[in-house]
């Protein structure tokens, strides 16, 4: 038994389950912990995250995180390091734990750190030093390691030995050594790729810092780390985030599969939630139903706070109060997606509460849908378009569609009033992978973007009365192909007949 916590406890293990491969019935061998070669029980896990030995129902033997093989993480690091000039070092740190009142937020790893390491524990960091070995770099992983007293409360942490072996680090050290190691190490390199922390804890008041230190000793480490980073001259310090953003924008086949699975879970949940929705139900219940279905399908959390906007609430683009009651005759705009195995999904559907669109609802819905489908057709590498081009195209198409159904649009009506948001954003580990994404760059195969035109009609006399207070958005996730787009969110119905079919149970769906 390797865990210091467990070896300290006088517990005899009576049965070791030795999972071989997924899907094969596991035999319960009666062994004892003291026997040589006995493997660790799957429960409680000996690691700080799901790994094949402890969670064979979630991962395949070669996977480091569900759906992503260990060699893909190796490939990501190599690709990054190969792209850098000689004399470069990369530094990436885990996300800090956030505390809310007395309880703790479910921890979510920092996206770039996770992309490079697959390591899911807080209080961790990685240093990658470019060198001339065949691997191309040297990797040092810092983490909290075993601490029996702490693990008794928070669960297992991966040992340094396992951190090195499983996550393929040349060296695994305590996070407490990170600031001093970093300090001595970066003096050796002329290019230090690192991101300056956005909310520097050093800038906090003395009292809040001591409170943070009380909550987590690692905050002290973080503060020291920030001092080291800020002391670097601007000529040597280079931002890491733009490089990561570029690399992350092209999804590997494994990532595409995980994202397709995430979109499938969300798409099915949308379909079943249409069936669940009835006049008289609360928006909150609709949101809860969606989340329940996603969790039931294995999603770890929602990718964002869902928008469940009934009737005129749909005119508020980021309506998340979700505290009204669905009325007969209204449409519901639901913008909701789950996170699955580290990747976000993002789907919006608009459907009738009664199960049947009214004529004006159908007319406006069909206008948005026609534009949306035409735009998806342009999501190919061969189309040579960027996100700005696609957005401009969406404005043109929506104007044409609206003019055909009786709108008399004046300059600015569409962009300023009826369709005030942007068409699209890249999506992946983060819901909006846009902060460093160049909207002027041509779309390339392997990118995944959303396509989400919408029309929101305020009750003003310059727009046809029968469309007043309607808000419609239709959003899919699209994988850019060389010549064809692939709609990842295809399991959520969007044709009028399919939506009505889902709502009415014609597709064989029951409310639950
Ligand atoms: Mn979106």
Question: Can you describe this structure in just a few lines?
Answer:
With 512 residues, the chain is of the alpha+beta class. It has 15 helices and 23 strands. The strands form eight sheets. A six-stranded mixed β-sheet has the order 10-9-8-5-11-12, with helices on both faces. It has a three-stranded antiparallel β-sheet with strand order 13-16-17.
Description:
The chain is of the alpha+beta class and 512 residues long. Helices cover 33% and strands 16% of the residues. Strand 16 and strand 17 form a beta hairpin. The protein starts with a helix and ends in an 8-residue tail after the last helix. Mean pLDDT is 88; it is low at 1-38 and 200-215. Bound molecules: manganese (II) ion. This is Peptidase M24.
Bound molecules: manganese (II) ion
Note poorly predicted spans: 1-38, 200-215
| Distance between the ends | 45 Å
Form type: globular
Give the overall pLDDT as a whole number.
Answer: 88
Secondary-structure-derived class? alpha+beta
**Radius of gyration in whole Å, from Cα?**
26 Å
For the largest beta-sheet, the strand count, sense and barrel status come to: 6 strands, mixed
Q: Treating each run of at least 4 consecutive H or I residues as one helix, how many helices?
A: 15
Strand content: 15-25%
- Give me the count of strands: 23
Strand order of the largest sheet: 10-9-8-5-11-12
Oligomer: single chain
Q: Residue share in helices?
A: 25-40%
What's the structural blueprint in terms of helices and strands?
Blueprint: H1 4-7, E1 16-17, E2 28-29, E3 63-65, E4 68-69, H2 70-82, E5 88-93, E6 99-100, E7 103-104, H3 111-117, E8 125-130, E9 137-143, H4 148-154, H5 160-166, E10 171-174, H6 178-186, E11 191-193, H7 206-215, H8 218-231, E12 237-238, H9 241-249, H10 253-276, H11 283-296, E13 301-302, E14 307-310, E15 331-336, E16 338-340, E17 343-344, E18 347-352, H12 359-376, H13 387-404, H14 413-418, E19 448-451, E20 454-456, E21 471-473, E22 476-479, E23 486-487, H15 496-504
Parallel strand pairs: 5-11, 9-10, 11-12
Antiparallel strand pairs: 1-2, 3-4, 5-8, 6-7, 8-9, 13-16, 14-15, 15-18, 16-17, 19-22, 20-21, 22-23
This protein binds manganese (II) ion (MN).
